[in-house]
Amino acid sequence: MSFTKASVRDAEVEGRRVLVRVDFNVPLADGRVSDDSRIRAALPTIELLRERGAKLILVSHLGRPDGPDPDLSLAPVAERLGALIGTDVRMAPGLVGPEVEALVDELGPGDVLMLENSRFEPGEKTNDPELARGLAKLADLYVNDAFGAAHRSHATTAGVAHLLPAYAGLLLEREVRELDAIREHPAQPMRLVLGGAKVNDKIGVIGHFLDVADRIMIGGAMAFSFFKRQGVAVGNSLVDEDSVEAAGDILTSAAESPCDLVLPVDLVLGREFSAETERRELDGIEVPDGWMALDIGERTAAAYADAIATAGTVFWNGPMGAFELEPFAAGTRSVAEAMAAAPGTTVAGGGDSVAALDKFRLIDRVDWVSTGGGASLEFLEGCELPGIESLLDAGAVGGQ
């Protein structure tokens, strides 16, 4: 399926104020950006607009603040972006209002202004019309390049897009094309590797791919929702109790589908969630009292790696265990290495999967690494994403 929304490539931007929704929800350490990959992902759109003489106003959220929080200011992000593009990026004191409008009025072609954290404003998450109007007042047109936030109906992703001519940024456009390819016509055999904690977050994507994939492999803490539903002892393992019933429904659906839903057959245990804890390999899945499973075992990891190696398409979302603790990183490392070596099309989505690929220095060896976790899952299950649906249709000329 071709991309059906208007692209920033087709927008007339010279001398015009362009509000760009970016996804700069990046980790900070000691007041500095510790991982700038999301900033770098937005550079093609930013550079295109600067080269074409646009006046850029960037807006993003950062973290989950409950009101203004100096520790979650976007000032360090503005500093890092300025270093990457070789020009000063001015920092606004807020999101909307007279002071921000005055700074926008001072912008020249190619200049960049960073608005303050959008979630400092309570109206962001409620898609407040007044906040959306305040944002629209700053610009002549809007570009959404934040695929990772496109599933949210917020003021900066949907509200303002209905008030200005709205275009897709280069990153958002690429995300949709890459994910649409594996949703609509993946090379077969199609296989999914799903981890993390919550089954409920992945019900939709599992339901869709039960009719598309030939194998879905489960790891991470979400496996224990399935085990508990089956009556398997899980010891002190992390279980999302709200997902146990959903896991049972998935098991029933999988039994009636041509897809093979695969659960771990062995585990790696620890006494507690710590790199220093006592470690034990379990040839089986019945977790004794006083222990918790923190990784898939060697046999499971080998089976998942073999399935990845023989797949036409693989989508991976979620780690296989506590990969941030080195004694329990082997399962996730095995999946990451298999993804990197696989001859088929490989796509990874979700912050933890991306963090794992980065940790193991394999991120450049996967065909596509999505910047969206929840957004990629919702897109793959066929949901309409508000941040995409609100954009102009391709061929529209409004605002050009």
Quick structural summary:
33% of the residues lie in helices and 16% in strands.
Structural description of this entry:
The chain has 400 residues and is an alpha/beta fold. It has helices at residues 37-51, 75-85, 98-105, 129-136, 155-159, 170-184, 203-209, 223-229, 244-255, 298-309, 330-341, 351-359, 374-380, 386-389; strands spanning 17-21, 28-29, 32-33, 55-59, 89-91, 112-114, 141-144, 166-168, 190-194, 215-218, 260-262, 267-270, 279-282, 292-296, 313-317, 345-348, 368-369. Strand 9, helix 7 and strand 10 (215-218) form a beta-alpha-beta unit. The protein is elongated and about 65 Å long.
CATH class descriptor of the largest domain: Alpha Beta
The biggest sheet, with number of strands, parallel, antiparallel or mixed sense and barrel status, is: 6 strands, parallel
**Main structural class:** alpha/beta
User: CATH-wise, what's the superfamily of the largest domain?
Assistant: Phosphoglycerate kinase, N-terminal domain
Topology at a glance:
Blueprint: E1 17-21, E2 28-29, E3 32-33, H1 37-51, E4 55-59, H2 75-85, E5 89-91, H3 98-105, E6 112-114, H4 129-136, E7 141-144, H5 155-159, E8 166-168, H6 170-184, E9 190-194, H7 203-209, E10 215-218, H8 223-229, H9 244-255, E11 260-262, E12 267-270, E13 279-282, E14 292-296, H10 298-309, E15 313-317, H11 330-341, E16 345-348, H12 351-359, E17 368-369, H13 374-380, H14 386-389
Parallel strand pairs: 1-4, 1-7, 4-6, 5-6, 7-8, 9-10, 9-15, 10-11, 15-16, 16-17
Antiparallel strand pairs: 2-3, 12-13, 12-14
Helix pairs in contact: 1-2, 8-9, 10-11
